Amino acid sequence: MADEARRAAFEVLAKRSNANIRTEQIRVEIGEAQDDPALRCRQMDAALYARINPRHDLSKPARRYAYATPVDMAKELLTLRGDTTMGLSPASLISRALHTTSDFSITLGDTVGRVLRDSYLAAPSGIRQLGRQTTARDFRSSRMACMGYCFGGAMSLHAARLGMDLRGVVSFHGSLGSTHTAEPGGIKARILACHGAAYTLVPDEQIDGFKVEMQTTEANYEFIAYEGALHGFTNPGASANGGKYGLPLAYDKATDDQSWADMQRFFGEVMA
Question: Is 97 within the bounds of a domain?
Fold first, then answer.
């Protein structure tokens, strides 16, 4: 009798359980990982730009950086890349962020690029006219170029991406990445990018991305990777700074001389 009662009780419970069973559809949306350094860079860039242009509407994810300082941003980007930041001074954090990964320099560069682009598009004819004023007798308005080192090299590449009226731009160990991409045919200047091949903290993906960008935008570009050269190969103080801060920096006189000769050859061609 006890066994029969137990079975009857189980059957009743089973019927009640089946009656209460519901099926639900769960929708899972897959988006960008919030710990992706590239995504964080875009959010930081937007936050910095909003400080310069208050009319810029910040997205909800970017608002987390609305009051963050550049030092805060540098520290976070380094942490995302697995670098130790404990005990580093603000100056050391900025220096390490600028030289160990390209994330921070891309963020700053894109912010400056946005401001330059806004100014250029707002009054392009006026900027061109001002830039062509000179007292030099042999000055030719159609023969302007620019060059830069490190951050200045990144800005030179940005000038090309903006479609500025330049015959050529040269970047020495500058960041190659950017969140702004020119339209096909939009780059007017010829480009020379001088890069240290041993600077492994600029990943192959970024180099490949730069080359794809140049090809997609139909740019006339030249990319030279100097074997054995680290970041800062043109700066005689780079080796001391590298040792002081534990960064992969080093001066390389042979590469310095060769890259300068390559620049002279390049400008000789674009200015002819």
Answer: yes
Residues 221 and 191 in one domain: yes
Regarding whether 221 and 180 lie in a shared domain, the answer is: yes
d(CA 169, CA 209): 19
Report how far residue 159's alpha carbon sits from residue 57's, in angstroms, rounded to the nearest whole number: 25
Its domain, for residue 227, covers 143-272
pLDDT at residue 132, as a whole number: 52
Total domains, the chain: 2
Coil, strand or helix at 78: helix
pTM of the model: 0.64
Supply 184's token pair. Answer: 């096909």
Q: If pLDDT is split at 50, 70 and 90, which confidence band does 247 have?
A: confident
Which residues, including other chains, have CB under 8 Å from residue 38's CB and lie 6 or more apart? 103
Give the amino acid at 93: L
> In this structure, how many other beta carbons lie within 10 angstroms of the beta carbon of residue 173?
28
Based on the domain organization, do 115 and 200 belong to the same domain? no
Alpha-carbon gap, residue 111 to 117, rounded angstroms: 10
Percentage of residues of the chain with pLDDT beyond 90: 31
